[in-house]
Specification:
alpha/beta; seven-stranded mixed β-sheet; 9 helices
């Protein structure tokens, strides 16, 4: 812990406007970590779309846990890293802590939106900390769920067309085809809330984790160092 604290202190000294937070438990043991470099924060506020994608991936080191990654998109449709967190899991408490620190780092943004997977703790965290933000679900996560649930059907192709449709009429057409082919799939997508995944219904303005695949096997301090090094590259 002392080594991590010193590291964060020195990073803030040499990277102005950076945000580093460490949370400990009642016995002063590591619990949560948050990092957003100043340059990433400034670029997001000054030049990026007001849209953040959040995803989590399991850490495979001795102490396990989750690496939470928040990214945005630049004008060239390239993924841009914004913030990283390490928590014990995608729990309500952990995700509320992460989003609270994210809000502390980026401040208030107008016409703000999130795109995430359909994890309930992530949904709850955004609703609690960013109640004014629109929240959409990642199309590829939903697509993966459809492949698993309705293997061998044509539902995935119809879902992609419905999700990417610009007009209500086109969206309704493809959703009608889904309902005709497999009503249970139509109910699954409808109950999710079409405003969370359909382009035609999305009220906000419309993933990076593979880059850190090897880092997930490292101890926490080494993981943080490697992420910072890749950001500088």
């Amino acid at each position: 812990m002392p080594k991590l604290v010193r590291y964060c202190h020195n990073m803030v000294r040499t990277n102005s406007d950076s945000a580093f937070f460490i949370e400990t438990d009642g016995q002063n043991r590591f619990k949560y970590f948050f990092m957003a470099l100043g340059q990433c924060i400034r670029d997001f506020r000054n030049a990026m779309r007001p849209l953040i994608l959040v995803d989590g991936t399991a850490l495979n080191a001795r102490y396990e846990g989750k690496l939470i990654i928040a990214t945005c998109q630049d004008a060239n449709i390239q993924i841009y890293p914004l913030a990283f967190g390490i928590v014990d899991g995608e729990t309500d408490l952990a995700m509320r802590w992460f989003f609270t620190k994210l809000r502390d780092a980026i401040g208030d943004i107008e016409h703000f939106a999130f795109v995430t997977n359909w994890g309930q703790s992530i949904i709850n965290g955004i609703a609690k900390v960013f109640p004014e933000a629109h929240h959409g679900y990642c199309m590829y996560h939903i697509q993966g769920n459809l492949k698993t649930r309705y293997r061998g059907s044509d539902i995935v192709a119809l879902f992609r067309r419905a999700a990417k449709a610009y007009s209500f009429e086109e969206f309704t057409k493809f959703m009608g085809e889904i309902k005709h082919k497999l009503e249970s799939a139509w109910e699954y997508l409808s109950n999710m809330g079409v405003e969370h995944w359909a382009r035609s219904h999305f009220s906000g303005r419309r993933i990076m984790r593979a880059l850190f695949k090897k880092d997930r096997e490292l101890p926490i301090f080494a993981t943080i160092q490697h992420i910072r090094s890749k950001l500088q590259q």
